[in-house]
Design brief:
The chain has 57 residues and is of the alpha+beta class. It has one domain. It has two helices and four strands. The chain has a four-stranded antiparallel beta sheet with strand order 2-1-3-4. The radius of gyration is 13 Å and the shape is globular. 0% of the residues are buried.
Length: 57
């Protein structure tokens, strides 16, 4: 039960993290980014247009 509560996305958002989605799917890599993204935060969403993507070198 404790592990389930710790991994709840709402708990992660409450710590200051955000979930970034592109084409309605959570993304982990810049290669997955489309022309727009939705950023879910603790208190709402940000909908943004992507102007540039840069990989770590």
């Amino acid at each position: 039960m404790r592990e389930t509560l710790l991994q709840n996305p709402r708990n992660v958002l409450a710590k200051g993290y955000a979930i970034v989605r592109s084409q309605n799917k959570a993304i982990r890599f810049v290669q997955q980014v489309g022309s727009t993204v939705s950023i879910e935060m603790q208190d709402g969403y940000i909908h943004a247009s992507v102007s540039k993507v840069t990989n770590h070198e």
